[in-house]
Amino acid sequence: MKADLKHTPLGYFIFFYREMGNKLIFNIFLATTLGLLDGVGLALFIPLLQFVNDAPGIATGESMGGLRFIFDGFSRIGIPINLFSVLIFMVFIFSIKGLLNYWLSMEQVDLRQKYMVKLRLGQIKQLQQLSYQGFLTLDAGKIQNAITAEVGKNLQAMIQFLATTKAAIVLVAYIMLAFLANWQFALFIMVGCILSNLIYRRIIESVKISSIEISKRGNLFNGFMIQCLHHFKYLRATGYFKQYAVKLQSVINEVENLNRKIGRNQAITASTREPIIIFIVAVVILVQITYLGASLGSILLSLLLFYRALNGLVVVQNTWQGFMQNVGGLQAVYDLSDSLQQFKEQEITTLMPKFHSQITLNDLYFAYGKKFALKGINLSIQKNETIALVGESGSGKSTLVNIMCALIAPTKGQLLVDGYSPDAYNINSYRAQIGYVTQEPIIFNDSVFNNVTFWAPVTAENIFRFWEVIEKVAMRDTVDNMTQKENTLLGDNGMLISGGQKQRISIARELYKDVELLIMDEATSALDSETENYVQENINQLRGAYTIIIIAHRLSTIKNADRIYLLEKGEIKGEGKFEELIEQSKRFGRMVSLQNIQ
After folding, report:
1. Which domain holds residue 477?
2. Which residue, of 16, 45, 79, 424, has the fewest CB within 10 Å?
3. What is the pLDDT of residues 207-250, one digit of tens each?
4. Based on the structure, what is the number of domains in the chain?
Protein backbone atom coordinates (compact mmCIF):
# COMPACT_ATOMS: atom_id res chain seq x y z
CA MET A 1 0.00 0.00 0.00
CA LYS A 2 1.29 3.47 -0.87
CA ALA A 3 2.26 6.02 1.74
CA ASP A 4 -0.29 8.69 2.60
CA LEU A 5 -0.68 11.63 0.24
CA LYS A 6 0.93 14.56 2.06
CA HIS A 7 -1.08 17.79 1.69
CA THR A 8 1.98 20.03 1.35
CA PRO A 9 3.68 21.49 -1.75
CA LEU A 10 6.51 18.97 -1.32
CA GLY A 11 4.01 16.14 -0.81
CA TYR A 12 2.21 17.05 -4.04
CA PHE A 13 5.54 17.31 -5.86
CA ILE A 14 6.55 13.83 -4.67
CA PHE A 15 3.16 12.47 -5.75
CA PHE A 16 3.43 13.89 -9.28
CA TYR A 17 7.10 12.91 -9.55
CA ARG A 18 6.10 9.34 -8.72
CA GLU A 19 3.56 9.49 -11.55
CA MET A 20 5.64 11.41 -14.15
CA GLY A 21 9.25 10.60 -13.23
CA ASN A 22 12.13 12.55 -14.79
CA LYS A 23 9.75 14.14 -17.30
CA LEU A 24 8.69 16.46 -14.48
CA ILE A 25 12.33 17.37 -13.74
CA PHE A 26 12.91 18.13 -17.44
CA ASN A 27 9.84 20.39 -17.39
CA ILE A 28 11.30 22.26 -14.42
CA PHE A 29 14.64 22.67 -16.25
CA LEU A 30 12.90 24.10 -19.34
CA ALA A 31 10.81 26.47 -17.18
CA THR A 32 13.96 27.69 -15.37
CA THR A 33 15.78 28.39 -18.64
CA LEU A 34 12.68 30.15 -19.95
CA GLY A 35 12.46 32.41 -16.90
CA LEU A 36 16.14 33.38 -17.07
CA LEU A 37 15.95 34.18 -20.78
CA ASP A 38 12.84 36.29 -20.26
CA GLY A 39 14.52 38.23 -17.44
CA VAL A 40 17.68 38.88 -19.47
CA GLY A 41 15.56 40.01 -22.44
CA LEU A 42 13.65 42.46 -20.25
CA ALA A 43 16.88 43.83 -18.76
CA LEU A 44 17.96 44.90 -22.24
CA PHE A 45 15.09 47.41 -22.42
CA ILE A 46 16.97 49.72 -20.01
CA PRO A 47 19.99 50.33 -22.30
CA LEU A 48 17.56 50.73 -25.21
CA LEU A 49 15.84 53.57 -23.35
CA GLN A 50 19.25 55.09 -22.61
CA PHE A 51 20.24 54.90 -26.28
CA VAL A 52 17.08 56.75 -27.19
CA ASN A 53 17.84 59.49 -24.61
CA ASP A 54 21.64 59.49 -25.20
CA ALA A 55 22.10 58.84 -21.48
CA PRO A 56 25.65 58.41 -20.12
CA GLY A 57 27.05 55.10 -18.85
CA ILE A 58 25.62 52.91 -21.59
CA ALA A 59 28.90 51.27 -22.48
CA THR A 60 29.67 50.38 -18.87
CA GLY A 61 26.12 49.20 -18.10
CA GLU A 62 25.98 51.11 -14.81
CA SER A 63 22.19 51.31 -14.75
CA MET A 64 21.97 47.52 -15.00
CA GLY A 65 23.53 46.97 -11.60
CA GLY A 66 24.60 43.36 -11.15
CA LEU A 67 23.30 42.54 -14.65
CA ARG A 68 26.18 44.43 -16.27
CA PHE A 69 27.75 40.97 -16.86
CA ILE A 70 25.64 40.93 -20.07
CA PHE A 71 27.62 43.87 -21.50
CA ASP A 72 30.84 42.42 -20.10
CA GLY A 73 30.15 39.38 -22.25
CA PHE A 74 29.75 41.62 -25.32
CA SER A 75 33.20 43.13 -24.66
CA ARG A 76 34.91 39.76 -24.18
CA ILE A 77 33.81 38.47 -27.58
CA GLY A 78 34.50 41.80 -29.28
CA ILE A 79 30.94 42.92 -30.02
CA PRO A 80 30.47 46.70 -29.84
CA ILE A 81 27.71 47.90 -27.52
CA ASN A 82 25.38 49.94 -29.66
CA LEU A 83 21.69 50.12 -30.55
CA PHE A 84 22.06 47.61 -33.37
CA SER A 85 23.90 44.91 -31.34
CA VAL A 86 21.49 45.22 -28.39
CA LEU A 87 18.46 44.92 -30.70
CA ILE A 88 19.94 41.86 -32.47
CA PHE A 89 20.68 40.24 -29.11
CA MET A 90 17.13 40.96 -27.89
CA VAL A 91 15.62 39.37 -31.01
CA PHE A 92 17.86 36.33 -30.50
CA ILE A 93 16.95 35.99 -26.81
CA PHE A 94 13.19 36.25 -27.39
CA SER A 95 13.35 33.87 -30.40
CA ILE A 96 15.07 31.23 -28.27
CA LYS A 97 12.54 31.94 -25.54
CA GLY A 98 9.67 31.38 -28.02
CA LEU A 99 11.12 28.03 -29.13
CA LEU A 100 11.60 26.95 -25.51
CA ASN A 101 8.07 28.04 -24.65
CA TYR A 102 6.71 25.92 -27.51
CA TRP A 103 8.86 22.96 -26.42
CA LEU A 104 7.70 23.32 -22.81
CA SER A 105 4.04 23.61 -23.85
CA MET A 106 4.26 20.46 -26.00
CA GLU A 107 6.06 18.62 -23.21
CA GLN A 108 3.23 19.51 -20.85
CA VAL A 109 0.60 18.40 -23.40
CA ASP A 110 2.46 15.08 -23.69
CA LEU A 111 2.69 14.78 -19.92
CA ARG A 112 -1.03 15.41 -19.49
CA GLN A 113 -1.97 12.77 -22.07
CA LYS A 114 0.41 10.17 -20.67
CA TYR A 115 -0.74 10.92 -17.14
CA MET A 116 -4.39 10.42 -18.07
CA VAL A 117 -3.69 7.22 -20.03
CA LYS A 118 -1.61 5.86 -17.16
CA LEU A 119 -4.31 6.83 -14.67
CA ARG A 120 -7.14 5.24 -16.71
CA LEU A 121 -5.20 2.06 -17.48
CA GLY A 122 -4.14 1.82 -13.84
CA GLN A 123 -7.77 2.06 -12.68
CA ILE A 124 -8.86 -0.61 -15.19
CA LYS A 125 -6.04 -2.91 -14.07
CA GLN A 126 -6.86 -2.39 -10.40
CA LEU A 127 -10.56 -3.10 -11.02
CA GLN A 128 -9.56 -6.23 -12.92
CA GLN A 129 -7.47 -7.35 -9.92
CA LEU A 130 -10.12 -6.40 -7.34
CA SER A 131 -11.36 -9.38 -5.37
CA TYR A 132 -15.10 -10.03 -5.21
CA GLN A 133 -14.98 -9.74 -1.42
CA GLY A 134 -13.25 -6.38 -1.83
CA PHE A 135 -15.93 -5.25 -4.30
CA LEU A 136 -18.62 -6.08 -1.73
CA THR A 137 -16.72 -4.09 0.89
CA LEU A 138 -16.19 -0.91 -1.17
CA ASP A 139 -18.83 1.75 -1.82
CA ALA A 140 -20.05 1.58 -5.44
CA GLY A 141 -20.74 5.34 -5.42
CA LYS A 142 -17.14 6.03 -4.42
CA ILE A 143 -15.83 3.80 -7.22
CA GLN A 144 -18.04 5.37 -9.89
CA ASN A 145 -17.40 8.94 -8.75
CA ALA A 146 -13.61 8.47 -8.63
CA ILE A 147 -13.50 6.81 -12.07
CA THR A 148 -15.77 9.35 -13.80
CA ALA A 149 -16.09 12.83 -12.24
CA GLU A 150 -12.99 12.87 -10.05
CA VAL A 151 -10.64 11.78 -12.85
CA GLY A 152 -11.49 15.02 -14.67
CA LYS A 153 -10.64 16.99 -11.53
CA ASN A 154 -7.45 14.97 -11.26
CA LEU A 155 -6.39 16.10 -14.71
CA GLN A 156 -7.25 19.73 -13.87
CA ALA A 157 -5.22 19.41 -10.66
CA MET A 158 -2.23 18.18 -12.66
CA ILE A 159 -2.59 21.01 -15.23
CA GLN A 160 -2.78 23.60 -12.45
CA PHE A 161 0.20 22.01 -10.66
CA LEU A 162 2.34 22.20 -13.82
CA ALA A 163 1.21 25.81 -14.38
CA THR A 164 2.06 26.66 -10.77
CA THR A 165 5.47 25.00 -11.08
CA LYS A 166 6.27 26.91 -14.27
CA ALA A 167 5.05 30.23 -12.83
CA ALA A 168 6.95 29.69 -9.57
CA ILE A 169 10.21 28.96 -11.38
CA VAL A 170 9.83 32.00 -13.64
CA LEU A 171 9.04 34.05 -10.50
CA VAL A 172 12.24 32.85 -8.81
CA ALA A 173 14.26 33.68 -11.94
CA TYR A 174 12.87 37.23 -11.99
CA ILE A 175 13.60 37.68 -8.30
CA MET A 176 17.19 36.52 -8.76
CA LEU A 177 17.74 38.96 -11.62
CA ALA A 178 16.06 41.76 -9.67
CA PHE A 179 18.45 41.11 -6.75
CA LEU A 180 21.37 41.40 -9.14
CA ALA A 181 20.06 44.73 -10.42
CA ASN A 182 19.29 46.30 -6.98
CA TRP A 183 19.35 43.99 -3.98
CA GLN A 184 17.89 46.54 -1.54
CA PHE A 185 14.84 47.22 -3.68
CA ALA A 186 14.40 43.50 -4.34
CA LEU A 187 14.61 42.68 -0.63
CA PHE A 188 11.90 45.20 0.28
CA ILE A 189 9.62 43.85 -2.44
CA MET A 190 10.26 40.27 -1.29
CA VAL A 191 9.22 41.11 2.27
CA GLY A 192 6.07 42.77 0.95
CA CYS A 193 5.22 39.75 -1.22
CA ILE A 194 5.68 37.35 1.69
CA LEU A 195 3.37 39.45 3.85
CA SER A 196 0.74 39.59 1.09
CA ASN A 197 0.98 35.85 0.60
CA LEU A 198 0.28 35.26 4.29
CA ILE A 199 -3.01 37.11 3.83
CA TYR A 200 -4.17 34.55 1.25
CA ARG A 201 -2.94 31.43 3.04
CA ARG A 202 -6.13 30.96 5.02
CA ILE A 203 -8.24 31.47 1.89
CA ILE A 204 -6.25 28.83 -0.04
CA GLU A 205 -6.56 26.38 2.86
CA SER A 206 -10.32 26.98 2.91
CA VAL A 207 -10.50 26.24 -0.84
CA LYS A 208 -8.61 22.95 -0.33
CA ILE A 209 -10.95 21.81 2.46
CA SER A 210 -14.02 22.71 0.37
CA SER A 211 -12.62 20.79 -2.62
CA ILE A 212 -12.12 17.61 -0.58
CA GLU A 213 -15.63 17.95 0.87
CA ILE A 214 -17.12 18.37 -2.65
CA SER A 215 -15.45 15.09 -3.71
CA LYS A 216 -16.89 13.32 -0.67
CA ARG A 217 -20.36 14.63 -1.51
CA GLY A 218 -19.75 13.43 -5.08
CA ASN A 219 -19.20 9.89 -3.77
CA LEU A 220 -22.45 10.14 -1.82
CA PHE A 221 -24.41 11.56 -4.76
CA ASN A 222 -23.16 8.86 -7.15
CA GLY A 223 -24.06 6.17 -4.62
CA PHE A 224 -27.60 7.57 -4.36
CA MET A 225 -27.89 7.83 -8.16
CA ILE A 226 -26.78 4.20 -8.70
CA GLN A 227 -29.49 3.07 -6.26
CA CYS A 228 -32.02 5.41 -7.86
CA LEU A 229 -31.48 3.94 -11.33
CA HIS A 230 -31.32 0.37 -10.00
CA HIS A 231 -34.60 0.77 -8.09
CA PHE A 232 -36.29 3.19 -10.53
CA LYS A 233 -39.28 0.94 -11.18
CA TYR A 234 -39.97 0.48 -7.45
CA LEU A 235 -39.57 4.19 -6.65
CA ARG A 236 -41.89 5.16 -9.48
CA ALA A 237 -44.50 2.45 -8.77
CA THR A 238 -44.72 3.22 -5.05
CA GLY A 239 -44.62 7.02 -5.25
CA TYR A 240 -41.45 7.05 -3.13
CA PHE A 241 -39.50 8.89 -5.84
CA LYS A 242 -40.35 12.34 -4.44
CA GLN A 243 -39.06 11.40 -0.98
CA TYR A 244 -35.93 9.84 -2.43
CA ALA A 245 -35.34 12.97 -4.54
CA VAL A 246 -35.11 14.97 -1.30
CA LYS A 247 -31.94 13.00 -0.44
CA LEU A 248 -30.45 13.85 -3.83
CA GLN A 249 -31.44 17.51 -3.52
CA SER A 250 -29.83 17.83 -0.09
CA VAL A 251 -26.48 16.60 -1.45
CA ILE A 252 -26.79 18.93 -4.47
CA ASN A 253 -27.46 21.88 -2.13
CA GLU A 254 -24.42 21.01 -0.01
CA VAL A 255 -22.20 20.88 -3.11
CA GLU A 256 -23.66 24.19 -4.34
CA ASN A 257 -22.87 25.88 -1.01
CA LEU A 258 -19.30 24.57 -1.08
CA ASN A 259 -18.81 25.75 -4.67
CA ARG A 260 -20.27 29.14 -3.73
CA LYS A 261 -17.76 29.34 -0.88
CA ILE A 262 -14.89 28.56 -3.27
CA GLY A 263 -16.22 31.18 -5.72
CA ARG A 264 -16.42 33.82 -2.99
CA ASN A 265 -12.81 33.13 -1.96
CA GLN A 266 -11.68 33.37 -5.58
CA ALA A 267 -13.49 36.70 -5.99
CA ILE A 268 -11.78 38.08 -2.88
CA THR A 269 -8.30 37.10 -4.03
CA ALA A 270 -8.84 38.24 -7.64
CA SER A 271 -10.07 41.70 -6.61
CA THR A 272 -7.51 42.46 -3.88
CA ARG A 273 -4.22 41.11 -5.27
CA GLU A 274 -3.40 43.91 -7.72
CA PRO A 275 -4.17 46.82 -5.33
CA ILE A 276 -2.01 45.18 -2.64
CA ILE A 277 0.87 44.64 -5.09
CA ILE A 278 0.77 48.24 -6.38
CA PHE A 279 0.65 49.53 -2.78
CA ILE A 280 3.77 47.50 -1.89
CA VAL A 281 5.66 48.75 -4.98
CA ALA A 282 4.70 52.40 -4.31
CA VAL A 283 5.85 52.24 -0.67
CA VAL A 284 9.19 50.62 -1.61
CA ILE A 285 9.95 53.18 -4.37
CA LEU A 286 9.31 56.07 -1.95
CA VAL A 287 11.56 54.52 0.72
CA GLN A 288 14.34 53.80 -1.82
CA ILE A 289 14.41 57.30 -3.34
CA THR A 290 13.66 59.33 -0.22
CA TYR A 291 15.73 57.54 2.43
CA LEU A 292 18.26 55.28 0.65
CA GLY A 293 19.22 57.55 -2.25
CA ALA A 294 18.91 54.87 -4.92
CA SER A 295 19.23 55.87 -8.60
CA LEU A 296 16.06 55.91 -10.64
CA GLY A 297 17.77 53.83 -13.37
CA SER A 298 18.55 50.87 -11.09
CA ILE A 299 15.09 51.14 -9.51
CA LEU A 300 13.54 51.21 -12.98
CA LEU A 301 15.26 47.96 -14.00
CA SER A 302 14.37 46.29 -10.69
CA LEU A 303 10.84 47.60 -11.00
CA LEU A 304 10.55 46.21 -14.53
CA LEU A 305 11.79 42.82 -13.39
CA PHE A 306 9.72 42.89 -10.27
CA TYR A 307 6.58 43.99 -12.03
CA ARG A 308 6.92 40.81 -14.11
CA ALA A 309 7.77 38.91 -10.94
CA LEU A 310 4.70 40.28 -9.18
CA ASN A 311 2.54 39.30 -12.14
CA GLY A 312 4.18 35.88 -11.83
CA LEU A 313 3.25 35.85 -8.15
CA VAL A 314 -0.38 36.52 -9.11
CA VAL A 315 -0.20 33.61 -11.58
CA VAL A 316 1.33 31.36 -8.91
CA GLN A 317 -1.39 32.28 -6.43
CA ASN A 318 -4.17 31.86 -9.00
CA THR A 319 -2.92 28.52 -10.33
CA TRP A 320 -2.23 27.22 -6.81
CA GLN A 321 -5.74 28.18 -5.77
CA GLY A 322 -7.00 26.41 -8.92
CA PHE A 323 -4.95 23.38 -7.90
CA MET A 324 -6.48 23.46 -4.42
CA GLN A 325 -9.93 23.68 -5.99
CA ASN A 326 -9.27 20.33 -7.69
CA VAL A 327 -7.17 18.67 -5.00
CA GLY A 328 -10.28 16.82 -3.79
CA GLY A 329 -10.26 14.92 -7.11
CA LEU A 330 -6.61 14.06 -6.57
CA GLN A 331 -7.41 12.75 -3.08
CA ALA A 332 -10.49 10.81 -4.26
CA VAL A 333 -8.60 9.02 -7.04
CA TYR A 334 -5.68 8.35 -4.72
CA ASP A 335 -7.98 6.96 -2.00
CA LEU A 336 -9.73 4.66 -4.50
CA SER A 337 -6.37 3.41 -5.80
CA ASP A 338 -5.29 2.75 -2.22
CA SER A 339 -8.52 0.83 -1.47
CA LEU A 340 -8.32 -1.23 -4.66
CA GLN A 341 -4.71 -2.07 -3.87
CA GLN A 342 -5.82 -3.20 -0.42
CA PHE A 343 -8.29 -5.74 -1.89
CA LYS A 344 -6.07 -6.89 -4.75
CA GLU A 345 -6.25 -10.58 -5.60
CA GLN A 346 -3.08 -12.60 -5.38
CA GLU A 347 -1.41 -13.01 -8.78
CA ILE A 348 0.06 -16.41 -9.68
CA THR A 349 1.35 -17.17 -13.17
CA THR A 350 0.90 -20.97 -13.15
CA LEU A 351 -2.29 -21.88 -15.05
CA MET A 352 -4.92 -24.19 -13.57
CA PRO A 353 -5.15 -27.58 -15.38
CA LYS A 354 -8.40 -28.36 -17.20
CA PHE A 355 -11.07 -29.98 -15.04
CA HIS A 356 -11.32 -33.69 -15.96
CA SER A 357 -12.47 -35.71 -12.93
CA GLN A 358 -14.21 -34.20 -9.88
CA ILE A 359 -14.75 -31.13 -7.69
CA THR A 360 -14.55 -31.79 -3.95
CA LEU A 361 -15.54 -29.71 -0.93
CA ASN A 362 -13.89 -30.95 2.26
CA ASP A 363 -15.27 -29.95 5.69
CA LEU A 364 -16.01 -26.46 4.39
CA TYR A 365 -17.05 -23.54 6.62
CA PHE A 366 -17.69 -19.90 5.78
CA ALA A 367 -18.53 -17.05 8.16
CA TYR A 368 -19.73 -13.49 7.60
CA GLY A 369 -18.17 -11.91 10.67
CA LYS A 370 -19.13 -14.22 13.54
CA LYS A 371 -22.15 -15.74 11.80
CA PHE A 372 -21.55 -19.00 9.91
CA ALA A 373 -23.29 -19.24 6.52
CA LEU A 374 -21.82 -22.70 5.80
CA LYS A 375 -20.96 -25.39 8.33
CA GLY A 376 -19.13 -28.65 7.63
CA ILE A 377 -20.01 -28.99 3.92
CA ASN A 378 -18.73 -32.21 2.33
CA LEU A 379 -19.67 -33.07 -1.24
CA SER A 380 -18.11 -34.12 -4.54
CA ILE A 381 -19.24 -33.43 -8.10
CA GLN A 382 -18.17 -35.75 -10.90
CA LYS A 383 -17.35 -34.44 -14.36
CA ASN A 384 -20.45 -34.08 -16.59
CA GLU A 385 -22.73 -34.68 -13.62
CA THR A 386 -25.74 -32.43 -12.98
CA ILE A 387 -26.33 -31.53 -9.34
CA ALA A 388 -28.87 -29.20 -7.74
CA LEU A 389 -28.73 -27.09 -4.59
CA VAL A 390 -32.07 -26.36 -2.95
CA GLY A 391 -33.16 -24.75 0.28
CA GLU A 392 -34.80 -21.67 1.69
CA SER A 393 -33.33 -18.19 1.23
CA GLY A 394 -30.34 -17.82 3.54
CA SER A 395 -29.62 -21.54 3.59
CA GLY A 396 -26.15 -20.98 2.04
CA LYS A 397 -26.70 -21.92 -1.62
CA SER A 398 -25.28 -18.74 -3.15
CA THR A 399 -22.38 -18.65 -0.69
CA LEU A 400 -21.50 -22.22 -1.65
CA VAL A 401 -21.52 -21.34 -5.36
CA ASN A 402 -19.42 -18.22 -4.70
CA ILE A 403 -16.80 -20.47 -3.11
CA MET A 404 -16.95 -22.90 -6.06
CA CYS A 405 -16.30 -19.93 -8.38
CA ALA A 406 -13.37 -18.89 -6.14
CA LEU A 407 -15.03 -15.51 -5.61
CA ILE A 408 -14.67 -15.87 -1.85
CA ALA A 409 -12.34 -18.07 0.19
CA PRO A 410 -13.69 -20.52 2.80
CA THR A 411 -13.10 -19.66 6.43
CA LYS A 412 -12.10 -23.27 6.97
CA GLY A 413 -11.85 -26.35 4.74
CA GLN A 414 -10.91 -26.79 1.10
CA LEU A 415 -12.21 -26.52 -2.43
CA LEU A 416 -10.32 -29.01 -4.60
CA VAL A 417 -10.57 -29.48 -8.37
CA ASP A 418 -9.08 -32.85 -9.38
CA GLY A 419 -7.20 -32.72 -6.09
CA TYR A 420 -5.77 -29.24 -6.71
CA SER A 421 -6.65 -26.03 -4.87
CA PRO A 422 -7.48 -23.19 -7.32
CA ASP A 423 -5.72 -20.81 -4.90
CA ALA A 424 -2.39 -22.39 -5.84
CA TYR A 425 -2.86 -21.38 -9.49
CA ASN A 426 -3.78 -18.33 -11.53
CA ILE A 427 -7.33 -17.89 -10.27
CA ASN A 428 -8.64 -16.46 -13.55
CA SER A 429 -7.45 -19.54 -15.46
CA TYR A 430 -9.79 -21.54 -13.19
CA ARG A 431 -12.68 -19.09 -13.58
CA ALA A 432 -12.23 -19.22 -17.36
CA GLN A 433 -13.50 -22.81 -17.13
CA ILE A 434 -16.75 -21.67 -15.48
CA GLY A 435 -19.96 -20.53 -17.15
CA TYR A 436 -22.38 -18.56 -14.95
CA VAL A 437 -26.05 -17.92 -15.79
CA THR A 438 -27.90 -15.74 -13.28
CA GLN A 439 -31.56 -15.01 -12.53
CA GLU A 440 -31.23 -11.61 -14.23
CA PRO A 441 -29.67 -12.26 -17.67
CA ILE A 442 -26.55 -10.24 -18.43
CA ILE A 443 -27.15 -8.56 -21.80
CA PHE A 444 -24.92 -5.79 -23.16
CA ASN A 445 -26.13 -2.95 -25.36
CA ASP A 446 -24.65 -4.49 -28.51
CA SER A 447 -25.34 -7.06 -31.22
CA VAL A 448 -26.37 -10.69 -30.74
CA PHE A 449 -22.99 -11.79 -32.09
CA ASN A 450 -21.00 -9.63 -29.66
CA ASN A 451 -23.21 -10.65 -26.73
CA VAL A 452 -22.63 -14.34 -27.42
CA THR A 453 -18.95 -14.20 -28.45
CA PHE A 454 -18.00 -11.42 -26.03
CA TRP A 455 -16.57 -9.27 -28.84
CA ALA A 456 -14.55 -12.04 -30.50
CA PRO A 457 -13.07 -11.14 -33.93
CA VAL A 458 -15.49 -11.75 -36.83
CA THR A 459 -13.72 -14.71 -38.45
CA ALA A 460 -15.15 -17.71 -40.32
CA GLU A 461 -14.27 -19.95 -37.37
CA ASN A 462 -15.95 -17.68 -34.80
CA ILE A 463 -19.06 -17.23 -36.96
CA PHE A 464 -19.37 -21.03 -37.31
CA ARG A 465 -19.00 -21.48 -33.54
CA PHE A 466 -21.55 -18.71 -32.91
CA TRP A 467 -24.23 -20.48 -34.98
CA GLU A 468 -23.29 -23.78 -33.36
CA VAL A 469 -24.12 -22.54 -29.85
CA ILE A 470 -27.19 -20.65 -31.14
CA GLU A 471 -28.46 -24.04 -32.37
CA LYS A 472 -27.77 -25.59 -28.95
CA VAL A 473 -30.04 -23.05 -27.24
CA ALA A 474 -32.73 -23.38 -29.94
CA MET A 475 -32.49 -19.79 -31.18
CA ARG A 476 -31.51 -20.34 -34.81
CA ASP A 477 -34.92 -19.38 -36.21
CA THR A 478 -35.23 -16.41 -33.84
CA VAL A 479 -31.87 -14.91 -34.87
CA ASP A 480 -32.52 -15.67 -38.57
CA ASN A 481 -35.76 -13.69 -38.38
CA MET A 482 -34.17 -10.63 -36.74
CA THR A 483 -33.77 -7.55 -38.98
CA GLN A 484 -29.98 -7.79 -39.15
CA LYS A 485 -29.65 -11.42 -38.03
CA GLU A 486 -26.60 -11.85 -35.75
CA ASN A 487 -25.74 -8.12 -36.09
CA THR A 488 -29.08 -7.01 -34.62
CA LEU A 489 -28.68 -4.67 -31.63
CA LEU A 490 -30.41 -5.88 -28.44
CA GLY A 491 -30.79 -2.53 -26.65
CA ASP A 492 -29.91 -1.52 -23.11
CA ASN A 493 -30.02 -4.67 -20.95
CA GLY A 494 -31.70 -6.52 -23.86
CA MET A 495 -34.85 -4.39 -23.77
CA LEU A 496 -35.60 -5.25 -27.44
CA ILE A 497 -35.99 -9.00 -26.85
CA SER A 498 -38.04 -11.19 -24.51
CA GLY A 499 -36.95 -12.56 -21.13
CA GLY A 500 -36.62 -16.10 -22.48
CA GLN A 501 -34.50 -14.92 -25.41
CA LYS A 502 -32.25 -12.96 -23.06
CA GLN A 503 -31.75 -16.02 -20.88
CA ARG A 504 -30.95 -18.27 -23.84
CA ILE A 505 -28.42 -15.73 -25.17
CA SER A 506 -26.82 -15.75 -21.70
CA ILE A 507 -26.57 -19.54 -21.85
CA ALA A 508 -25.20 -19.38 -25.42
CA ARG A 509 -22.44 -17.00 -24.25
CA GLU A 510 -21.27 -19.51 -21.64
CA LEU A 511 -21.36 -22.38 -24.14
CA TYR A 512 -19.37 -20.33 -26.68
CA LYS A 513 -16.75 -19.88 -23.97
CA ASP A 514 -16.28 -23.70 -24.01
CA VAL A 515 -16.67 -24.10 -20.25
CA GLU A 516 -16.11 -27.17 -18.09
CA LEU A 517 -18.51 -26.16 -15.31
CA LEU A 518 -21.89 -24.52 -15.96
CA ILE A 519 -23.65 -22.83 -13.01
CA MET A 520 -27.36 -21.99 -13.28
CA ASP A 521 -28.19 -19.61 -10.42
CA GLU A 522 -32.01 -19.34 -10.38
CA ALA A 523 -31.72 -19.20 -14.18
CA THR A 524 -35.44 -19.71 -14.83
CA SER A 525 -37.08 -18.17 -11.75
CA ALA A 526 -37.81 -14.83 -13.46
CA LEU A 527 -39.52 -16.47 -16.45
CA ASP A 528 -43.15 -17.35 -17.06
CA SER A 529 -44.07 -21.06 -17.03
CA GLU A 530 -44.09 -21.51 -20.82
CA THR A 531 -40.72 -19.77 -21.30
CA GLU A 532 -39.32 -21.60 -18.28
CA ASN A 533 -40.20 -24.94 -19.85
CA TYR A 534 -38.54 -23.88 -23.09
CA VAL A 535 -35.32 -22.84 -21.36
CA GLN A 536 -35.46 -25.94 -19.18
CA GLU A 537 -35.52 -28.10 -22.31
CA ASN A 538 -32.34 -26.33 -23.44
CA ILE A 539 -30.70 -27.07 -20.08
CA ASN A 540 -31.79 -30.73 -20.20
CA GLN A 541 -30.16 -31.07 -23.62
CA LEU A 542 -26.86 -29.99 -22.08
CA ARG A 543 -26.94 -32.73 -19.42
CA GLY A 544 -24.06 -35.16 -19.76
CA ALA A 545 -22.08 -32.77 -21.98
CA TYR A 546 -21.22 -30.35 -19.16
CA THR A 547 -20.80 -30.41 -15.39
CA ILE A 548 -23.88 -28.47 -14.27
CA ILE A 549 -24.74 -26.95 -10.88
CA ILE A 550 -28.32 -25.71 -10.57
CA ILE A 551 -29.56 -23.45 -7.78
CA ALA A 552 -33.35 -23.47 -7.82
CA HIS A 553 -36.42 -22.48 -5.86
CA ARG A 554 -38.69 -23.96 -8.52
CA LEU A 555 -38.20 -27.65 -7.90
CA SER A 556 -39.67 -28.62 -11.28
CA THR A 557 -36.39 -27.48 -12.88
CA ILE A 558 -34.29 -30.04 -10.98
CA LYS A 559 -36.36 -33.24 -11.37
CA ASN A 560 -33.79 -34.68 -13.78
CA ALA A 561 -30.68 -33.75 -11.77
CA ASP A 562 -28.30 -36.63 -11.01
CA ARG A 563 -28.12 -35.54 -7.38
CA ILE A 564 -29.90 -32.95 -5.26
CA TYR A 565 -28.48 -31.41 -2.09
CA LEU A 566 -30.90 -29.93 0.45
CA LEU A 567 -29.33 -27.12 2.47
CA GLU A 568 -30.69 -25.80 5.73
CA LYS A 569 -28.97 -23.10 7.81
CA GLY A 570 -25.63 -23.71 6.08
CA GLU A 571 -25.65 -27.51 6.43
CA ILE A 572 -26.47 -30.35 4.04
CA LYS A 573 -29.58 -32.03 5.45
CA GLY A 574 -30.22 -34.47 2.63
CA GLU A 575 -28.96 -35.69 -0.76
CA GLY A 576 -30.07 -38.02 -3.52
CA LYS A 577 -32.16 -38.14 -6.68
CA PHE A 578 -35.49 -36.34 -6.76
CA GLU A 579 -37.64 -39.31 -5.73
CA GLU A 580 -35.07 -40.54 -3.20
CA LEU A 581 -34.92 -37.17 -1.48
CA ILE A 582 -38.72 -37.02 -1.22
CA GLU A 583 -38.56 -40.29 0.70
CA GLN A 584 -35.57 -39.23 2.84
CA SER A 585 -36.56 -35.68 3.80
CA LYS A 586 -39.93 -34.55 5.09
CA ARG A 587 -38.87 -30.93 4.50
CA PHE A 588 -38.07 -31.61 0.83
CA GLY A 589 -41.30 -33.59 0.45
CA ARG A 590 -43.27 -30.65 1.90
CA MET A 591 -41.49 -28.24 -0.52
CA VAL A 592 -42.48 -30.49 -3.46
CA SER A 593 -46.04 -30.73 -2.21
CA LEU A 594 -46.38 -26.95 -1.79
CA GLN A 595 -45.29 -26.43 -5.40
CA ASN A 596 -47.75 -29.06 -6.70
CA ILE A 597 -45.05 -30.94 -8.59
CA GLN A 598 -46.17 -34.25 -10.09
Report:
1. 433-547
2. 424
3. 777 777 777 777 777 777 777 766 665 666 666 667 777 777 88
4. 3
